[in-house]
Design a protein that fits this description.
The chain has 379 residues and is mostly helical. The chain has one domain. Helix 6 packs antiparallel against helix 12, helix 9 packs across helix 11 and helix 9 crosses helix 12. The radius of gyration is 22 Å and the shape is globular.
Length: 379
């Protein structure tokens, strides 16, 4: 009796003639079966010396910053803060995850993907939780793995779409941060802000360079690469470019994400009795987010706190209020996200989230409606 084969994600049989776009996309979302499930379903290596070192660096920075705080003064400011505004701000921030999920789903609409908008929103929320624990955006690799085992998207294609969205976000945040900084400070811009913008520019250029490299590879013959590597390049490139008709909706969703994030910071600062201008709210949102992309610590832990406090002081917020806003921001944005992420992991079987390789994926069949829709659209 032949050994039972395991599939890394569902076996698809797209409707269409040989060489059709539908057939090509079906091939991009499949990999050859192997009798070794642990080899096919294994996720990226997230935990190693680099992660522990990053956590240690972040912890040292946070402890050092905490030693400079006055807990009693912060507590008084928090007690006096407008709790309704804090709640509304938190809801605005966490509302970005369904929007991000919708945006990701639309960027992969040219693939026969399983799972609806809720599933993609949940995956984005969960791998962002992991991003709060590991350095250097390793969680993006994990996000691609989650898309593979939950939605049947080839990991290379999912990673290509993540790189595309990261590039869109990087340029959006950089441009908005630069415009806000220029309007507020012009030639007197603080050195810390300049360096943050410079690093943000480097990150935006780096993600764009990755896309350009894969465009070049796609146009090359690649005969010097093994067949599997050529398939991965092709899948990455296809995932990296959404349908032309989806560019405008993705752009609008990207602007909505950052509008909600800006609203979150505006309401947070307003809750402490400070009324920021539009330019100040934009500045306080975008510049600390650029700091979160620093690969040194998980999600910029320690660096984001320092950057946000510095930005608040630059726009004239008193030191006790600035410290209180920074603490509450990180409690809601960072630490609450970790708590909710752990809770989601604990109930993952109940909500149908596969976090590693917990099931025989060949048992999950894609909805026939998805395949029919792909056939009608021609890929």
């Amino acid at each position: 009796m032949a050994p039972r084969k395991w599939a890394p994600y569902p076996s698809l049989s797209p409707v269409g003639s040989a060489g059709s776009p539908t057939k090509e996309l079906g091939e991009l979302t499949q990999e050859k079966s192997s009798p070794a499930p642990e080899e096919n379903s294994r996720g990226p290596a997230l935990w190693g010396w680099y992660t522990y070192l990053s956590l240690a660096i972040g912890a040292v920075i946070l402890v050092g910053l905490a030693a400079l705080l006055d807990p009693k003064e912060i507590w008084r400011e928090v007690i006096a803060a407008n709790k309704k505004l804090l709640l509304l701000g938190a809801l605005a921030h966490y509302a970005t995850y369904p929007v991000r999920g919708l945006r990701w789903r639309r960027s992969l609409i040219h693939f026969p993907v399983q799972g609806g908008l809720g599933k993609f929103g949940l995956i984005v929320f969960f791998y962002t939780f992991v991003d709060n624990l590991v350095p250097a955006k390793l969680a993006d690799l994990y996000g691609a793995h989650l898309a593979r085992i939950n939605c049947g998207v080839r990991r290379s294609a999912a990673l290509g779409s993540i790189v595309f969205l990261r590039t869109a976000d990087a340029w959006t945040v950089l441009l908005l941060g630069f415009v806000a900084s220029w309007v507020l400070f012009s030639a007197t811009m603080a050195a810390s802000v300049v360096w943050t913008l410079v690093v943000g520019g480097i990150i935006a250029v780096a993600t764009t360079s990755v896309m350009l490299v894969f465009i070049f590879l796609k146009k090359s013959s690649l005969t010097w690469l093994p067949a599997k590597a050529r398939e991965m390049v092709h899948a990455f490139h296809t995932g990296m470019w959404p349908n032309t008709s989806e560019i405008a909706p993705i752009a609008m969703l990207t602007l909505l994400v950052w509008a909600l994030e800006t609203l979150w910071i505006f309401l947070l600062v307003l809750a402490f009795g400070v009324v920021p201008s539009f330019e100040e709210a934009l500045f306080l949102t975008m510049v600390p987010i650029l700091a979160s992309a620093f690969p040194l610590t998980p999600s910029g832990a320690g660096l984001v706190e320092l950057t946000l406090f510095t930005c608040l002081r630059l726009v004239g917020v008193a030191s006790p209020v600035a410290a209180s806003v920074t603490v509450v921001n990180r409690l809601i944005d960072y630490w609450l996200h970790i708590v909710l992420g752990v809770l989601i992991w604990a109930i993952r079987h109940v909500i149908g989230l596969r976090s590693w390789n917990e099931v025989l994926l060949e048992s999950v069949e894609p909805p026939e409606a998805v395949l029919r829709e792909e056939a009608v659209r021609g890929g």
